[in-house]
């Protein structure tokens, strides 16, 4: 597991690696903007170690810092190598991202499957890396022969070309959520809480009472079904105690207003000598 | 389910939506490059419908086409609206992406949970949309009040700021793989096949025979363990029939070469009058 510190914004966020996280290795990257965007995506996903193999336009390049949006620490710590063999020499396990597996015999994993393996291996203390190829051509056959397995994203087969930093984003995302236990759906209640059935029932009683009073439920035959339908509506999604109080206020206010208007109408009608039933 | 056609590269890939796919709605986007990169990410993930609410620098903008890398059709079909209400008026269900939920009561989903719901809803014929906020500030409170639920990626809490097109990439990726059944790990064998245990045993017998012949297994006490360890090694990962044939050839060649050398050595030793045991 990683923990990250952020103490200031001078020179970007104060990002540090804590724990054993995989190395992202950009092989012969062409555009500095993509190197910077890669650093940003890595920081989003809790990755820190960036290696560059023979970056086309040299290193460092100012444009990378501009597209890193504060992930400067990763760029400052980036290591540059002349070739893939040197860049992976100290690693125990290496994955290679590859959109189209060619005529080779190789283990192919999904981003999700690969991330699970990376989590398992890094937790055993193994140093792992992920190779990403150059923008135009991707990794070549020699690069792939150095990897333990390929990682391939099962995306739209008719539009497979991902931007380099987008490809890194997908892996960083999968790495990060591989140990995440956020529930897929949750009502964020902040200062209030989900209403109990008793609180809901209090509200329903007030509502029915006011609806009885204004005559909305005067059809005795339809009354049980109408009340039941309202109850169905108010139990459709979770509702908070605070919302019930607001709804309570809405109904009181509408009812009071109606009674005020009724009274004003009565007075007006009395004054004009008319009556209504 | 979607199917995509790609017939040419003039004006980009020939992408068409087939089936009911969610609309991506960029709210007050600032940079044309991000609009183009969004279109590319959408195409990667099999999304087609792009809507723009009040793009800062107007629309169309040539820079968007340059960063779309061939996803031109999505940009050409993009619809522009003045406000969020107009952009979502025909939709049944709307999600809003939001990195930091504020003091509101709202359902929050993960990208994965949200994608599962989008798949379920679109398969029922409901029109769905996902709101993405402007680069600098994200969606405002009024925008979020219009959404059925928020989607929040559980990424590095100390570096939450995703590039706009990266945020779209994560949702497009999750949308795409939500119905994907690719195994997480698979040996891609192409023209060959995974070796049967019988094929492996044939190879092991040849190997042991050659090793016996060259004396590598001459220690009778250690011999069974050594053979077993070799067998452990050759069963560690899957091996293909083709690879076994290659290894067979490697061993034959090494053995033949050794025998040739042994013979040459014998002749040399005989000529020089020396012998070795």
How many domains would you count in the coordinates of chain A?
2
Major sheet characteristics of chain A: 7 strands, parallel
CATH-defined topology of the largest domain in chain A: Alpha/beta knot
CATH architecture assignment of the largest domain in chain A: 3-Layer(aba) Sandwich
The end-to-end distance of chain A, rounded to whole angstroms, is: 74 Å
Can you tell me about this structure?
- Two copies of one chain form a homodimer.
- The first copy, chain A, is of the alpha/beta class.
- The radius of gyration of chain A is 31 Å and the shape is elongated.
- Helices cover 44% and strands 12% of the residues of chain A.
- In chain A, strands 3-2-1-6-4-7-5 form a seven-stranded parallel sheet.
- The longest helix of chain A is centred in the last third of the chain and has 32 residues, at 241-272.
- At the A-B interface, helix 1, strand 5, helix 5, helix 7 and strand 8 of A face helix 1, strand 5, helix 5, helix 7 and strand 8 of B.
């Amino acid at each position: 597991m990683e923990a990250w510190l952020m103490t200031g914004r001078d020179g970007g966020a104060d990002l540090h690696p804590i724990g054993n996280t995989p190395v992202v290795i950009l092989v012969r990257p062409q555009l500095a903007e993509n190197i910077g965007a890669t650093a940003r995506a890595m920081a989003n996903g809790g990755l820190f170690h960036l290696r560059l193999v023979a970056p086309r336009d040299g290193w460092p390049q100012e444009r990378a810092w501009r597209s890193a949006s504060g992930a400067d620490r990763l760029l400052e710590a980036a290591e540059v190598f002349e070739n893939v063999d040197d860049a992976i020499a100290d690693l125990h396990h290496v994955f290679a991202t590859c959109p189209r597996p060619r005529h080779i015999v190789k283990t192919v994993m999904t981003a999700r499957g690969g991330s699970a393996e990376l989590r398992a291996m890094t937790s055993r203390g193994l140093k792992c890396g992920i190779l990403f190829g150059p923008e135009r051509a991707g990794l070549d056959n020699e690069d792939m022969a150095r990897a333990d397995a390929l990682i391939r994203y099962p995306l739209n087969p008719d539009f497979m070309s991902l931007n380099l930093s987008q490809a890194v984003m997908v892996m960083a995302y999968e790495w990060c959520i591989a140990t995440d236990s956020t529930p897929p759906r949750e009502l964020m209640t902040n200062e209030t809480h989900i209403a109990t059935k008793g609180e809901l029932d209090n509200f329903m009683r007030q509502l029915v009472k006011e609806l009885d009073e204004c005559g909305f439920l005067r059809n005795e035959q339809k009354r049980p079904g109408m009340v039941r339908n309202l109850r169905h509506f108010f139990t459709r999604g979770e509702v908070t105690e605070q919302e019930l109080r607001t709804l309570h206020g809405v109904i009181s206010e509408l009812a009071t207003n109606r009674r005020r208007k009724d009274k004003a109408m009565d007075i007006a009608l009395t004054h004009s000598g008319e009556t209504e039933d």
